Amino acid sequence: MKKIVVACDSFKGCVSSMEIAEHAEIAIHRIYPECMVTKIAVGDGGEGTLSALVSKLKGELVTCKVNGPLFDPVLAEYGIIGGNGTAIIEMAVASGLTLLPMGKRNPMLTSTFGTGELIKDALGKGCRKILIGIGGSATNDGGTGMLQALGYNFLDNKGEKLGHGGQILNSITAIDDTGVPPEVREASFTIACDVNNPFSGSNGAAYVYARQKGADEHMILELDKGLKNFAKVIKENNNRDIDGVPGAGAAGGIGGGFLGFLNARLKPGIEVVLEAIGFNELIEEADLIVTGEGKLDAQTAMGKTPAGILKAAKKQGVPVIAIGGGVEAVEELNRAGFLAVLPLLPYPVTLQQAMDPKFTLENIRRTLEQQLRIIAFYKSKNV
């Protein structure tokens, strides 16, 4: 083989996209020493999106002190791409689930305020194009915290200003936008997300995702009720019907918050990333692409990073191998077009061992090398 492209998502909480690529390169060169390996850091809107884009586009990282999900101070980074006034923000660094220990996770209280502070800081530095990945949130506030940081206020039936978190959603009766500065209205937002859930309902933000953010059954009911109310208020005040829009329920409804108030469009996260880095050009004349993520299952084919990679590869007729720590729905993934779907674990292990970075990287090298040995053997036989 003359050229192999490695473009995996990070294995969340374990190894980064570029670490995977570097260890895959070792395996490739053991079998094909002369092969050109193109290593690409990618993400689908969640963890890893910021580093993937800033690295590839040679941007500048900016550090900003913001409020975390429960208003504890957090040092968060975002990127600025010089020359075109574009900021690249990863919601998870300010409002992410990993910022909170298990005992403090409560989507009735957590807020996206810190994400809004990152946007405000970028606007203050002259950015008018905001690309934001919204995966991995700790919140279910419909984006109200983000909007509050940008100057919006939400009022109850007495005209009193409400506080923060998902707990306020069902009390909102009016919106005060008199404090929103001009730069917020001037900016355009591209929202990278990897889900297509509506704002509320059985497939909405609360029912599908709030439990993993610390909600119990009663909280889920209240949060969904609140999201329905907030969607109603947005429709009445802003003439925007967001409730059933695919992706509006992403990241606890912040997708809907962007659509309801700002000049925003939602796009599949992986498509945003691949377009920004010029992926179609990077895979020209490739013999093989290696992609993957921590878990490969039926959801993988529904817009996750490997699916985006596969879609682009099909257009150029490049075969794609997918690797994952855990693998389900293999036949479905094969039918989607993956040449092979490879699990990394060599034997049953504990979750702690499965998440060990050194163990994972060793398994990536081993698994890929064994697959390439087979390919090399049959190529040498001209089979």
TrEMBL record:
<dbReference type="GO" id="GO:0008887">
    <property type="term" value="F:glycerate kinase activity"/>
</dbReference>
<comment type="similarity">
    <text>Belongs to the glycerate kinase type-1 family.</text>
</comment>
<keyword id="KW-0808">Transferase</keyword>
<keyword id="KW-0418">Kinase</keyword>
<protein>
    <submittedName>
        <fullName>Glycerate kinase</fullName>
    </submittedName>
</protein>
<dbReference type="InterPro" id="IPR018197">
    <property type="entry name" value="Glycerate_kinase_RE-like"/>
</dbReference>
<dbReference type="InterPro" id="IPR018193">
    <property type="entry name" value="Glyc_kinase_flavodox-like_fold"/>
</dbReference>
<dbReference type="Pfam" id="PF02595">
    <property type="entry name" value="Gly_kinase"/>
</dbReference>
<dbReference type="InterPro" id="IPR036129">
    <property type="entry name" value="Glycerate_kinase_sf"/>
</dbReference>
<dbReference type="GO" id="GO:0031388">
    <property type="term" value="P:organic acid phosphorylation"/>
</dbReference>
<dbReference type="InterPro" id="IPR004381">
    <property type="entry name" value="Glycerate_kinase"/>
</dbReference>
